[in-house]
Amino acid sequence: MTPELKAGDFLLRPLRPEDAPAVHRLVNDWSVVRMLSRLPFPYPRDLAEKWIASTLEDSARGEAHHFAVTRNGTLLGAVGLVLSDDRRSASLGYWASPAVWGQGMTTAAAQRVVEWALQVLKIEKLTADVAVDNPGSSAVLRKLGFQETGRGSRRFVSRGTDCPIIIHELTRSGFLQQEATIQDAPPPPPVQEKASTPAAPPLPKPRTLLVVAAALLDTQGRILLARRPEGKRLAGLWEFPGGKVERDETPEQALIREMKEELDVDLTGSCLAPFTFVSENAGPFHLLMPLYVVRRWRGTPAPREGQELAWVKAADLAKYPMPDPDLPLIPLLQELLG
Ligand SMILES: Nc1nc2c([nH]c(=O)n2[C@H]2C[C@H](O)[C@@H](COP(=O)(O)OP(=O)(O)OP(=O)(O)O)O2)c(=O)[nH]1
Q1: Cα 109 from Cα 5, distance rounded (Å)
Q2: 212 and 167 within one domain
Q3: Which atom of ligand 1 is nearest the CA belonging to 261?
Q4: Separation of 267 CA from ligand 1 center, angstroms?
Q5: Which of 104, 122, 199, 237 has the most other CB atoms within 10 Å of its CB?
Q6: Residue 200 within any structural domain of the chain
Q7: H or E segment and range at residue 68
């Protein structure tokens, strides 16, 4: 199902039948519709209704996810993802009301959908086509990290003719590389004063982030997972509760603090059994994450930071999308609890 996502001031949510008048009003505008290849002009009202109904069906089948982009309850545009049959790639599309062009809305909304597609749906490759006479849209794609991979031509129903298009692509690995270099670049290396031969620029060194996490196990052997809330990095992914180890803390102290802050449970005096650890490139940093198994605590876990909680059987862990570095933990926990 299509979730709600947040991008700054904008709420991205599934379309609703009652959006039809707004969709019709915004799309039935030559400056918008001429950039959308499949729509006629004038754009009839019943097509807006049919399109919204089809987005709901596609979403239920997991074939496509279309988001209404809203601010303060007003619909301003839409972003959509249409998945390939094998669900490994998807094409991205969007349109926005001319009233908000140039304000960064499309970039912010499309960026959030791209992150969600790559991180939560684990899509490997995104593509997007843009008419050559739509440089604004190409600029949006470049800001998102898309690269031009080719040129082609497509029939534009509204224009009644074939038009040249530019094909763009963003791969998951390209996105991760971009996260690593843009979001948290380490300081530049010191300038070499007497370099006799021009040296290749040194690769940026990943910074190691120490994060501590726990697999809390209940009496039925289920594991507590928490879903990262909107607004945080990796929002929408399920993780083992925990957090960053502060400078003056041991991992155990950090775990006790995090469990109190996030779940309102007291682990003081509980057996914190070291189970395994993650040491993985996590994009902006290198993640070092000891994972403890904890079977006893005081209190009932409650979501204190807006996160969703779920007690999950080991066999069902793979149904909960997790950050990539966590994936090797799943078979280890299944073995422990199997
Ligand atoms: N807790 C936890 N974090 C994980 C897991 N897997 C994984 O990649 N991470 C990453 C996500 C975050 O980038 C980082 C944890 O940082 P965080 O932001 O949640 O830490 P925190 O609770 O100290 O948060 P904050 O107050 O600084 O926002 O580790 C996991 O299973 N559990």
Answers
A1: 9
A2: no
A3: 22
A4: 19
A5: 237
A6: no
A7: strand 64-71
**What is the signed CA dihedral for 137, 139, 140, 145, rounded to 10 degrees?**
130
Between the two ends of the chain, the Cα-to-Cα distance in Å is: 30
**For the complex shown, is ipTM > 0.90?**
yes
pTM: 0.88
Residue with tokens 């039925």: 220
190 occurs within a structural domain? no
How does pLDDT run across 218-269, given as a tens digit for each residue?
999 999 999 999 999 999 999 999 999 999 999 999 999 999 999 999 999 9
Residues with CB under 6 A from ligand 1: 211, 213, 233-234, 239-240, 242-244, 258, 282, 287, 289, 323, 325-326
Measured CA to CA, the distance from residue 165 to residue 154 in angstroms comes to 7
CA of 212 to the centre of ligand 1 (A): 8
Q: Are residues 22 and 72 in the same domain?
A: yes
Question: What are the angstrom distances between the C-alpha of 118 and each of 14, 77, 83, 87, 232?
Answer: 19, 22, 12, 11, 15
- Which of 29, 72, 21, 76 is closest to 51 using CA atoms? 21
Domain carrying residue 300: 208-337
Amino acid found at 23: V
